[in-house]
Amino acid sequence: MTHYAFPISPLTKFPGGPVDLPVNAIAKRLGITPNQVIFAWVKAKGAVIVTTSSKKSRLEEYLAVGDLSPLSDEDIAAIDEAGAKGPSNNKLVRRGVFVFIALALYFLISSASRMG
Questions:
Q1: What is the dihedral angle through the alpha carbons of 55, 43, 6, 99, rounded to the nearest 10 degrees?
Q2: I want to staple 47 with a disulfide (CB 3.0 to 4.6 A). Which of 2, 56, 91, 108 is the partner?
Q3: What pLDDT, on the 0 to 100 scale, is given for residue 5?
């Protein structure tokens, strides 16, 4: 048995990533939330959905997925293809720039202290 512990991470931790486009389009077309699209995709993969939410509104949203029609093969493929591209690199680029600046300052200070 396979389970997805955090299936909505593409929408919550990496907003603006490649998964947003197909998920939002599918949600709009079907009249459901993007979270429900992700959960329907997980369900289509034959996995068990595990959530840690304790908010009543979210739990009701998640439970409603059981009553939804299955996603089409095209919808599943669109999410698969977008997910294969990985998360948006915006956070990674910012973190990389920060690390680069921190290391540059470290080496600059180290060099100055050795010279003087």
A1: -140
A2: 2
A3: 47
Residue 88 CB neighbour total at 10 angstroms: 16
Residue 9 falls in which region: left (phi positive, over 0), alpha (psi -120 to 50) or beta:
alpha
Task: Using pLDDT thresholds of 50, 70 and 90, give the confidence band for residue 65.
Answer: confident
Contact partners, residue 109, CB within 8 Å, separation at least 6: none
* Residues 36 and 27: beta-carbon distance below 8 Å: yes
Which two structure tokens, joined as six digits, stand for 103? Answer: 């290391």
pLDDT in tens, 76-105: 999 988 888 766 555 544 455 445 555 555
